[in-house]
């Protein structure tokens, strides 16, 4: 998403530069300063986009442990302990990140989604468990995003990979929110619904 916004920003800046150069043209020819202006606008817009859409804040210079400790000290850290029995994945539509539906021990179905999940997939350093797993603690910023997932128990096999959510699913807000626990439908019902979407598209 940030890459898309950066591209739109650069395009808009170039459009403004071309428009300004066009107002000073005669007979459709660019004035002598037109090309230098467009070139300068390109360089400035790229630098500005890198600054605006690729934030390198103080957080980026902190270790994850320091950031978590800071949030905890400010009372901004929320901890959720979960136990799960089963999990299945939904394929990405574009680059929105991984999607998981997980059957919790209490009967609810947890939905997790986002690029942050990439960090917890596959082999991990120090022999840490990979996600999804049977016991885990989600550490969230009180007002924002997932900060960390602490895996425990044992790694859960992904039962299946269902077809991606469609554009219509996103448009009609049929995709749950990250961290939402669904209690009006069972895990098996949701899995069957997602798998059946493949047949509907065929």
How would you characterize this protein structure?
The protein is an alpha+beta fold and 202 residues long. It has two domains: 2-55; 65-201, no CATH class. It contains five helices and seven strands; from the N terminus they run H-H-H-E-E-E-E-E-E-H-E-H. The chain has helices at 2-23, 34-53, 64-73, 167-171, 187-201; strands at 77-90, 98-104, 109-114, 133-141, 146-155, 158-162, 181-182. Strands 1, 2, 3, 4, 5, 6 and 7 form a seven-stranded mixed β-sheet that branches. It is elongated, with a radius of gyration of 23 Å. The protein starts with a helix and ends with a helix. The model has no long low-confidence stretch (mean pLDDT 84).
Strand content: 25-35%
Main sheet: strands, sense, barrel: 7 strands, mixed
Structural category:
alpha+beta
**Count of helix runs:** 5
The count of DSSP E runs of length 2 or more, i.e. the number of strands, is 7
The N- and C-terminal alpha carbons lie at a distance of: 29 Å
Number of structural domains: 2
Order of helices and strands: HHHEEEEEEHEH
Alpha carbon gyration radius: 23 Å
Helix content percent band:
25-40%
Q: Name the shape in a single word.
A: elongated
Q: List the quaternary state of the chains.
A: single chain
Mean pLDDT rating = 84
Catalogue the unreliable spans: none
């Amino acid at each position: 998403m940030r890459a898309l916004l950066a591209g739109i920003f650069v395009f808009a800046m170039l459009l403004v530069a071309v428009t300004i150069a066009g107002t000073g043209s005669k007979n459709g020819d660019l004035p002598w300063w037109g090309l230098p202006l467009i070139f300068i606008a390109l360089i400035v817009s790229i630098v500005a986009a890198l600054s605006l859409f690729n934030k390198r804040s103080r957080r980026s210079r902190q270790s994850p442990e320091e950031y978590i400790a800071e949030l905890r000290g400010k009372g901004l850290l929320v901890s959720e302990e979960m136990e799960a029995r089963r999990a299945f994945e939904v394929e990405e539509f574009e680059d929105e990140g991984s999607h998981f539906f997980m059957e919790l021990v209490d009967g609810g179905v947890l939905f997790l989604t986002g690029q942050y999940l990439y960090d917890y997939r596959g082999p991990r350093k120090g022999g840490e468990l990979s996600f999804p797993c049977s016991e885990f603690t989600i550490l969230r910023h009180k007002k924002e995003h997932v900060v960390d997932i602490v895996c425990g128990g044992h790694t859960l096999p992904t039962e299946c990979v269902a077809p991606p959510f469609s554009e219509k699913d996103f448009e009609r807000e049929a995709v749950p929110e990250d961290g939402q626990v669904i209690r009006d439908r069972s895990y098996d019902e949701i899995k069957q619904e997602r798998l059946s979407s493949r047949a509907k598209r065929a």
